[in-house]
Amino acid sequence: MNILENIHSIWHVIGRNKIRSFLTMLGIIIGVMAVIIVMSVGAGAQSLILNQVKSMGSNLVGILPGKADEKGPPASVMGVVITTLKDDDLKALVKEIPYFTAVSGYVKGTDTVTWGDQQTDTNFTGVNYSYIDVEDTKVEIGRFFTEDEEKGNARVAILGYEVAKDLFLDQNPIGQQIKIKKTYFNIIGVMIKRGTSGMQNQDDQIFVPLTTAQKLLLGIDHVSFARLKVDDAKNVDNAVEQAKVLLRERHNIDNPENDDFSIRSMAQGLEAITSITNALKMFLVAVAAIALVVGGVGIMNIMLAAVQERTREIGLRKAVGAKNKNIIVQFLIESVMITSIGGLIGIILGILISFIVAKVAQGMGYDWDFAVSVSSVFLGCFVSVGVGLVFGIIPARKASRLNPIEALRYE
Amino acid sequence: MTLIEAKDLCKEYVNEEVKTPVLHDLNFKIEEGEFVAIMGPSGSGKSTLMHILSFLDKISCGKYLFKGKDVSEFNDDQLAQMRSKEVGFIFQAFNLLPRTTVLENVMLPLLYDGVSNNNIRIYKAKQALINVGLDHRLNYFTNQLSGGEKQRVAIARALVNDPSVIFADEPTGNLDSKSGLQVMKILQSLNEEGKTIILVTHERYTAEHAKRILRIKDGVIESDEKVVNRQFAQTSNELIK
């Protein structure tokens, strides 16, 4: 009896018990679907993050206060406030190390900003005057603040594109005064529309001079993080090394183990993000694997019931000449067929849902790629066949070992 | 030619270390072309004997020679092979596959006999069904048939491999008398064509359709004699060839 004949006759068995077969498949459908979705949506999210980080440029170096492991993020990312990094450190870096052409420190806060009767909840960010050089952006109207304005703690502000729209609708905001934390600021410019970058909506922000933000709005003297621009991408590694030496000198650190800062190039940052998202993906795949095991146990359960129900049929098949291996093959093919069909449905549904997620994300303006890797489809096929084999073998062996005489008498 | 030979054949079941002897030192021969009825009350061991002779069960001691070959020590696969090649079964409860067509049921033994060409299988199955007068029911499902028709499908299934011997275990037990007669008539005409038939029954009337009766009681052969007044199954309507 060859495999094709088995498949043909088993197709009838499955067709006869449609609802039961479907319910049996459900565990496999959900498991395989979850694997496909996790891999596809995971890849989409990863590409989104990578695109955003890459959009900031490859010759950027970031400094965060606090020590970091090689791969993991520093504590400051998790919301721990570390006050070791100062504006003077940044100025020294640009002055002492020729590779750095521009720097900007960042401090951030949120407030309800008002202009006359209009008000909006938004973020304000204190940056250095070379911010637009570091981030490679520009103002749409007006101008950015100057070095002198920064030194003089000038109360000037540049609006993000959305903030300008929210507060001023179609009016020209230049020359108007807005109030942030009870302090009046003169608006001198509006940024171009930039979208999201670095996981932050760059258009929903107000930029003010760093020192002004530190002293007047936040009452601090440290920066949350800093970005430095390197003259050429090939000098990034050298620049990072020299920056480490300089900062250790300034902070009186002898042993690199005790660093109170972490410096990363974009490339290293990408690695860190990739390793985090990969770990997350593995976790979700593990959850999907549990669903598959549960589905497999369901298959085994239903196959054991089928063996019981078809005891007489097994007895008859043996009586007319079926060998034990014929019976094993028959029941194994049956369980593999159920899991394969389930797997196929799961793959199709998984691709469909991933596609919908991608379309929705794209509709919301994210730079999201729809991609279903061939490997995840292969994995889905392989796993569903594997589950059928692994969980089908016990019922199949049980069937093959039935005594034909007793099986024929079974009521 | 001697088809079946039992030499001091015995069988005992061992259950939780309690031995239950069922058959004791049986000695008999069955020649090719015979029509033998194995008769006896329930519990006599006649079913056990049939299971052993038809390779469904193994003996405990003695020897069982089939076509002169000792099959006492055959393993499961070898016994399956013997069932596939040498014997056909007719059961009291028909044992047809449910929700499967008549043709597919009859083709079943061919699947395990290594007949790989589907057209040959269909041809052979159709021939067997013509033999029992059911070629107009090929694509019926077995649950759409009457009891008599079901048993005739089972006979076709038993014939399809062209076996050396057909074992019929109470083949008329679940049938009305008219259908029972039809079945007996088919068995008799198959025997006329040279097929060896071994019939297991507890009814004297049914047994008397055979040519020889082997009476079993308490696991021993009580008598072994030719049927003097043989019954010949006559059916009023000639459904069968």
Question: Could you describe the 3D structure shown?
Answer:
The complex is a heterodimer of chains A (411) and B (241). Chain A is an alpha+beta fold. Chain A folds into 2 domains: 3-52 and 272-409, no CATH class; 83-259, no CATH class. Chain A contains 13 helices and 12 strands. Chain A has helices at 3-16, 18-54, 87-96, 131-134, 147-151, 161-168, 210-218, 236-250, 266-309, 311-319, 324-363, 374-400, 404-409, and strands at residues 60-65, 100-115, 118-127, 139-142, 156-159, 177-180, 183-191, 196-197, 200-201, 205-209, 225-230, 261-265. In chain A, strands 1, 2, 3, 4, 5, 6, 7, 10, 11 and 12 form a 10-stranded mixed beta sheet that branches. A two-stranded antiparallel sheet of chain A has the order 8-9. The radius of gyration of chain A is 32 Å and the shape is elongated. Chain B has 241 residues and is of the alpha/beta class. Chain B is 32% helix and 29% strand. In chain B, the strands form 2 sheets. In chain B, strands 6-7-8-3-9-10 form a 6-stranded mixed beta sheet, sandwiched between helices. At the A-B interface, helix 1, helix 10, helix 11 and helix 13 of A face helix 2 and helix 3 of B.
- N- and C-termini, Cα separation of chain A: 27 Å
Shape of chain B: globular
- Rg value of chain B: 18 Å
Low-confidence stretches of chain B: 237-241
The DSSP helix count of chain B reads: 7
Largest interface: A-B, 23 and 26 residues
- Helical fraction of chain B: 25-40%
In the CATH hierarchy, what is the architecture of chain B at level 2? 3-Layer(aba) Sandwich
Largest sheet of chain B: 6 strands, mixed
Strand pairing plus helix content of chain A: what structural class? alpha+beta
* CATH superfamily caption of chain B: P-loop containing nucleotide triphosphate hydrolases
User: What is the C-alpha radius of gyration of chain A, as a whole number of Å?
Assistant: 32 Å
If strands are numbered along the chain, what order do they take across the biggest sheet of chain B? 6-7-8-3-9-10
How can the largest sheet of chain A be summarized?
Answer: 10 strands, mixed
Q: Beta-strand percentage of chain A?
A: 15-25%
For the terminal residues of chain B, how far apart are their CA atoms? 29 Å
pLDDT average of chain B, as an integer?
A: 90
**Might you state the CATH topology name of chain B?**
Rossmann fold
